[in-house]
Amino acid sequence: MKYILYLLIGMLVLACDDFLSKEPTKSSAQKVETLDDLEAILNEPSTHHLLRGALVNFFCTDNTELPLEVFKEYKGNFYIYQVQQYLWEAAVDVRTDSYWNACYAAIWNANLIINMVDGMEGDETRKENIRAEAYAMRAYKYFMLAQTYCLHYTAATADEPGLPLRKRTDFEENLDRSTLEETYRLIDADLQEALKLTVSFADKRWRASRASVNAFAARYYLYRGNYTEAEKCANMALGEFSELVDYTTISRYLYRTYSVPTSDGQISLFPVYYPDTYKYTSKQELEWKEQYQTEIENEASYLILPSTELLNLYKEYPHDLRYELFMVEGYMDYYGVNEHAWYGYVILGSGKVYTGPSVAEMYLIRAECKARNNDISGCMSDLEIVREKRFASENYLVLPMPKNRKEAVQIVLDERRREAPFALRWMDLRRLTSDELMDPIVVKRTFWPLDGGDVNMKAGVQEYILSPESRKYARPIGSDAINLSNGQTKQNQY
Questions:
Q1: C-beta of residue 429 within 8 angstroms of C-beta of residue 423
Q2: Which residues contact 300 (CB under 8 A, 6 or more apart)?
Q3: Angle of the 359-372 helix axis to the 376-387 helix axis, nearest 10
Q4: DSSP H or E stretch at residue 488
Q5: 489: number of CA atoms within 13 Å, CB side?
Q6: Measuring CA to CA, which residue among 286, 356, 291 is closest to residue 43?
């Protein structure tokens, strides 16, 4: 059994750069013969739920800002591909795209299970649940890939490039990109199979359950604009599990004190306070109790920098613990601190955020669906359920009652930014590009131009714009994935 797990982990960690094109050798492959073997795949969280980050979540939204003075002081600590993503450059200097590879490695595991489970001996109910869990894994990964590398799906974009759709494990499938409509047709079909899962919510939060599948379905239907189904699925998830973390139980601690040189030649001592969740163990991370299904994205540079706009959004209601705990002032951590150090978002160890569906997200989805269906009081009630756990009681301020459903939806969108700024915002920006009720958002940057794969700081700064109609909402695919497909997988066109 152990060897099976090692094989699967190795496929992800060591060989994921070329798994789309190379078949495992007979010497390396281990037989998968029983339902226990399939369970072993699903029991190993690192193979499919702990990922290198989707760069769009960290660098591409209006929740991120790279201040000019910070970049000037710490230029050597930023990879050029991070800056390219930040400026929505069409050509990103990423050969090996770890997010693409990790998602397709999980899809390979899902395909293995789907293709083998029916031929195995064992209890039929157990087989049905293993199959449904694999479909849930595949649906989720294809959906998140589409959020990164494809345009937002509408009637107008249905024929745009989707994803290479792999359903087998023989490495011989055509790697041409499907249409966006075909991609979402597969996601939807997989989701319907996943919703057949009957396993109740359990402590192993990296395993799928009725709650986690319905939570993903709520996210999916919200994105598709099906607010009736989104609310229904959010209700199902909350009916299974609805416990929120009381943020008053999380404290700040002094991690280290820096000697900071200032421009006038003086030295000042600068303490940097972190939330005690910063010291979470791997086990604690997997079992964060608001997550229906654990997914942790990790940005290798450790730098997740909030925008001034996001910081000001927290300050509209003073003493928001999401700000006081997780927005760490002077956050350059391993790189030192000086007078130009900025804020950093730190909820776990440096560079890690939860991105899987959560209890808070379900309340926010339900609130938005109610608002869009003109149940404004119901919307605000759901918002208050979340917010009451994010403030000390003596500092809590009730949100004002909105005048209409558009205003109510905007309040929900603001709350989604406060709650999960580097997990949900990219998806929200995408769906707002074609929202009939809400205004689309134009995201702007001021930064130096890029010149020959570097930042030209000798030139004047210029404005960069991500407009609602931009094709840059589909981010470039890593060149290795394209090359290893022998030219079948085509790059996005800009």
A1: no
A2: 52, 53, 351
A3: 160
A4: none
A5: 22
A6: 286
User: Which residue in 189, 305, 292, 172 sits closest to 242, CA to CA?
Assistant: 292
Vertex 429, ends 137 and 66: CA angle to 5°? 105
Q: 384-428 pLDDT, tens per residue? A: 999 999 999 999 999 999 999 999 999 999 999 999 999 999 999
Please name which of 222, 245, 239 lies closest in space to residue 365, comparing C-alpha atoms: 222
Task: Please give the span between the terminal C-alpha atoms of the chain, in angstroms, as a whole number.
Answer: 47
Q: What pTM value is reported for the model? A: 0.92
Q: Which one-letter DSSP state was computed for residue 76?
A: G
By the 10 Å C-beta count (0-12 exposed, 13-18 middle, 19+ buried), 394 is classed as exposed
Instruction: Give yes or no for a contact between 53 and 298, defined as CB atoms under 8 angstroms apart.
Output: yes
Return the residue matching tokens 């037989």. Answer: 31
Phi-psi region of 453 (alpha: psi -120 to 50; beta: other; left: phi over 0): left
| Tens-place pLDDT, residues 84-132 | 999 999 877 666 688 899 999 999 999 999 999 999 999 999 999 999 9
Q: Going edge to edge, which strands form the sheet with 50-52?
A: 50-52, 296-298, 352-354
Phi/psi class of residue 67: alpha, beta or left (left: φ > 0; alpha: ψ in -120 to 50)?
beta
For the packed helices 308-315 and 405-419, what is the interaxial angle rounded to 10 degrees? Answer: 110
Residue 43's CB is within 10 A of a number of other CB atoms, namely 14
**CA-CA distance, 110 to 197, in Å (whole number)?**
15
Any idea what DSSP says for residue 178? -
- HSE, CB side, 13 Å, CA atoms: give it for residue 459: 12
